Amino acid sequence: MPDEPLLELNGLCKSFGALAVTSDLSLTVRPGEIHAIIGPNGAGKTTLIHQISGTLRPDRGSIRFVGRDVTALPFERRARLGLARSFQITSVVPGFTALDNVALAVQARSGSSFRFLRPVSAETALNDEARAALDTVGLGRVAGTPAAALSHGEKRQLELAIAIAMNPRLLLLDEPLAGAGPEETDRLIGILRDLRRRYGILLVEHDMQAVFALADRISVLVYGRIIVTGTVDEIRSHPEVRTAYLGEDALA
Amino acid sequence: MIGQLRTHSLPLAALLALAAAPFLGFGDGFALSLLARAMILGMAAVSLSLLIGGAGLVSLGHAAMMGVGAYTVVAFDAAGVSEGVIVFPAAIAAAALFALVTGAVSLRTSGVHFIMITLAFGQMAFFTASSFSSLGGDDGYTLYARTEWLGARILDNRLTFHFLCLALLALVWLGCSRLLASRFGRVLRAAKENPQRVLAVGFQPYPYRLVAYTLAGAVSGLAGALLANASEFVSPALLSWTRSGELMFMVILGGVGSLSGAILGALAIVLLEEWLSHLLVYWRLVFGPLLVLSVLFLHGGLIGVIPRTRAALRLLPWTRRNANA
């Protein structure tokens, strides 16, 4: 069924003590769409990402991914189903080269890793796919550089390459532009634009210009609740969104 | 290949020196038994280095695994069995099983908790060994005979024993290096640096760590069985936590993150201990500060001495011209 959503959240609830950080939240991501989530600080965006990726269990509600209920599945099992997550604070293996970082992701979906004697660096099949993913994000020329020596923007690109190398169905991107300079932002937006249609993308981002440039649909999250979901134009003109969240500048 | 030789030049030189030692005036019984001890502890240190440097698992109960191997030899000896074909596999399997069971629990924790829980398991093994009165209890147990191989008493020959230990040490080093360079090793290394990232690409580190812990236990069991044969005596002191600390110090002195460093560390500590104890009565007063100084000034351990010296030489004005030429 082509119209079946990739990801479907139903009535998700999560509280820390008396504080409801996610309340009765439902949303869908369809194949090939970029669904952006915006909202002020403390709206519960990252908590939501944690629940979708499986690092945090929701109190109530269900999460369906590629047609199956994954609410009880741990993080790494969801990853194996094709849910690739990037982190708000860059998370790569600093001592590995860029290539090895990506090859690790290829390795995760290419047969058993309980192989003890053959040097993994000589596995050309893994390296070729890793190199292709690096080329996709424009990092081919730093394949041999240790991740720790890459610039901040390059690390963000590397995280994207790792996500792509997982051959995912859905990319879960937690502020992929955070901390990137203007030039790096342009490059990352370009990369994300290339990636749309190939994967469903759930994008959490503060950069409004980027969100408006990329998203097919936008959901506005305030105090753990989605107050509206709509297209870019609908969100721009929505009165509640204007008052609750967006400044006049952002709409200019 | 040449690069490989270069980075491993120091440990390779050490192994060659060990091979030549019996023919260079270190062929008497005392020297050979000292070197055998160093090589055997070297094996255990390499397996601990695999855990600490490779997987980020700082275990303070590693001597217990060696002790399980040694006490397996003792238990068989007490039962009148000294056939190596039975005793050695049994010692390795017993230590591996001990590692598997304690690891299954310990690896659910991390950081300081992991250190403490491995220490606790080590102490449990220590007190268990102390309370086996049929195996000598606190006093220890003197072996009736060294282990035989298919009835042949080949381990009684000190030279044979020396080269057996040397071959096994080289094999352990090679095996652990291969392991770290494999697919399995890559998952371990990545999980050491960033477990979150490893989960995010779809690996649960736990089973990989447990297998590594078990393999390290098996290697230590082998070392323990050899050590029992080397000294023909086993006492609970072999399992004490100070012994675990000593193994850890060998790893640190040699250079964390380098398996071969553990070999250098083991050799350095065993030989230095011996030498100082002959020189001085209160040799520990010197030994302690030496260890402290080495940690303070040998960043990267003994294994880093050659590359660092080379780098330092390059900075000198009269060598700089040569380097450019």
UniProtKB/TrEMBL annotation, chain A:
Keywords: ATP-binding, Nucleotide-binding, Transport. GO terms for molecular function: ATP binding; ATP hydrolysis activity. Pfam families: ABC_tran (PF00005), BCA_ABC_TP_C (PF12399). SMART domains: AAA (SM00382). InterPro entries: AAA+_ATPase, ABC_AA/LPS_Transport, ABC_transporter-like_ATP-bd, BCA_ABC_TP_C, P-loop_NTPase. GO terms for cellular component: plasma membrane. Residues 7-248 form the ABC transporter domain. It comes from the Bacteria. This is ABC transporter ATP-binding protein. It comes from Azospirillum griseum.
TrEMBL record, chain B:
The keyword Transmembrane applies. Keywords: Cell membrane, Membrane, Transmembrane, Transmembrane helix. One of its GO terms (molecular function) is branched-chain amino acid transmembrane transporter activity. It holds the Pfam family BPD_transp_2. It is found in: Cell membrane. InterPro entries: ABC_transp_permease, LivM-like. The chain crosses the membrane at residues 12-36, 48-74, 86-107, 114-135, 159-181, 210-228, 248-272, 281-306. The keyword Transmembrane helix applies. It is a multi-pass membrane protein. This is Branched-chain amino acid ABC transporter permease.
